[in-house]
Target: Molybdopterin oxidoreductase
Amino acid sequence: MTEKEFICVVCPNGCSIEVKYEEGDPPKLISSEGARCPRGKSWARQEIENPMRTFSSSVIVTGGEFLEASVRLTKPISLSKVFDVMKEIKKIKLQAPLKIGDVVLTNPAGTETEVIVTRNVSVKVNQKQKEVVFHAKIN
Model:
């Protein structure tokens, strides 16, 4: 039997949860103590038996006002798949324009999530075009 202590991240309480579990594939939770709410107890079980994560990253954008756009997962994925998904995200190259919520990757590494854009990226306007638009507004 193995013992471990976690600080719960489900709510602002930040409970210190002590768990006992049997190692294996997957590990099996035996007991947990310290959670002040049912969500914390559930989170501790998941963290032992099948830890899940969500994350954000960035992808390369061509033809846009920014060289990169931020992206994130729409659902948590198994911790064991994080690096596989990151490898797939690293390969993405997008063309502007982009809108928040655009789906750029579906089911990466066999997971049940999508990768979506979290920043609007307009098409880059060259300096000469900007000057013409600027002068047109003045006159």
Summary: Residues 1 and 65 are 55 Å apart (CA to CA). The helical segments are 38-49, 82-90, 127-138. The first strand starts at residue 2 and ends at 7. Residues 131-139 have pLDDT under 50 and may be disordered.
